[in-house]
Hints:
The complex is a heterodimer.
Chain A: H1 7-16, H2 23-40, H3 80-84, E1 90-91, E2 94-95
Antiparallel strand pairs in A: 1-2
Chain B: H1 8-16, H2 22-36, E1 59-62, H3 64-79, E2 91-95, H4 122-129, E3 133-138, H5 173-180, E4 186-191, H6 197-203, E5 206-209, E6 229-234, H7 237-247, E7 277-279, E8 286-290, E9 296-300, H8 303-318, E10 322-324, H9 335-351, H10 370-381, H11 384-397, H12 403-424, E11 434-438, H13 454-458, H14 465-470, E12 474-481, E13 487-493, H15 499-512
Parallel strand pairs in B: 2-3, 2-4, 7-10, 7-11
Antiparallel strand pairs in B: 1-3, 4-6, 5-6, 5-12, 8-9, 11-13, 12-13
Amino acid sequence: MSDAITPELFAHLVDLAALELSPEEAEYIRGQLNHQLQAIHELEAIPLDETLPVTSHGVAYTAAISQAPREDTWQACPNPEEILAQAPQVEEGYIVVPDIPHTKLE
Amino acid sequence: MELCDLTARELSALLRARKTSAVEILASTLERVGAVDGRPGTPDPAPLSDEDRRKVHAFITLTDERALAQAKAIDSRLAAGEDPGPLAGIPFTVKDVFCVRGTPTTAASRILANFTAPYTATPVERLEAAGGVMLGKVNLDEFTFGSSNESTAFQPSPRNPWDTSRVPGGSSGGSAAAVAAGEGPLSLGTDTAGSIRQPAAFCGVVGVKPTYGRVSRYGLIAFASSLDCPGPLARDVGDAALMLGVIAGPDPRDATTATAPVDDYTAALERGVKGLRIGLSPDYMRITIPTPDGGFEERPVPEEVAAPVRRAAELLRAQGAEIIEDVPMPNTRHGIPVFFVISRVEAASNLHRYDGVKYGYRAPEPVDDLRLLYKRSRGQGFGPQPKLRILMGMYVSAAQYSAQYYRRALSVRSMIRRDFEIAFDPHGPYRLDALLTPTTPTPAFGMQAVYGDSVLMQYADQLTVPANHAGVPGLTLPAGLSGDGLPLGIQLLGPDFSEATLLRIGRAYERATEGDAWRAVRPQVLR
Lengths: 106, 527
């Protein structure tokens, strides 16, 4: 099985993704990712048709079926207290978080 | 036959003739839930008992009080001579990935286990505005990431009503199982790679993946935003058509919804198939199987999966359809590799919002560093499937790999789309109105038989995912039982916004098979 995603690269991805994994979970997930890459590698052998436009959607969004953009108007949120009530920690209408790490500039 | 076993249209007729009431329909359905469903999924479950292994476990949250209030309101309106809408008094379930104001909306993930939605998704709003009675929120694979429903953080996971040792499919597994077991005749699901069609096929019900943009995604917790399609699961084609008509159409709150007019899906149902051109493709009659050594091999689809497709073609030909054989769809086999890239990139992007700050799960231990709070909360809140998708999405979209993977996947996606454009081109060589294929490579597999192997699980979607890449609509129909008594599905795929034609073909097939012996067989949990 391929080992394109090495333990070092994997650790870097986990850090970028802001995840914390147990060693067992990390081993399982890294193995599965390398397994999936074998399926993905099939793509490299496909001759691409350069004349085909690349789109990020299947259905073509022609002007005929697209909505006009909404008007850019101010709307009051009807239930801010319900939304704030979802936050794990709130003080006087503000969401509270731990310190944001920073480095002092010399 | 109980009230809860009837179709939405049958219930509607009884209700309008004042032969029953919305409250009675609800009571019958809740009684069925009580009899077959067992305990609902929770993130901290007790171990499975033998009793649990015989139940369906479709639900995460039963909203019975809310449903009773809605049913009473419908009865009052009917008594006052009002028309409360086309779904008046019809119980429906909602995949727990749609926000419904004031109800827990979990995406079957620990990270949203404590989340109560502050607003309602457009398709749910439309179902309720049409008089539908929401019975509750049903289970799914965590964030819809799976094809068996086993990845849900809310255990016990749903089981197949036809054989409770098998999976119901996924990710709309709770939806399909509920519809099959008489726990509400309609369910709202979503389909990103086959998540409506595959479980519908596994559970012997009808499922529609509408054209991308036909049904609003407002209020849907996103997986892969360029692929996600909300759609109906129902017991027959007429009910699916009725429900689709209610939820389809433009929504100013989802800019990707199309303004194309919504057809009257029920009006055209009985028009038959005379003159329609229906294609068969050899590329949908072979499947890729991942092998234990990490390789892949191609095989024909199993005979029991192929036979219903050939029979359907014969039945439709006998009713006047023209069957076009050997339609090439050469890029079908690339659907899963392309999906592995595109869906992961989109999922990773969509899942960055869960951070333990604004809503959802926060790691309980105090930390003094925001970044550590993110890592702990996400590490504890997400199960393995979201983590796999986030990490793969970040890998294949990284600057140094993006051309090799993501750009290339988008190009191959265009090639998959072109296969359909050629097949459906009204001036092209095939001029198809629909393509007829199997829905799944196999009938429902056993619990624990595939889960854990993320590659093998993904290949369960290989016959459904091309339609998601192309954006075209798909319909799955029950088409008989396997040697083991498990439902088999056939799939119809059509051009953009051709849902009315697909439903019409589906109805013609339904009529042609009305007298088949398998149609009288009931799921195991109802015998």
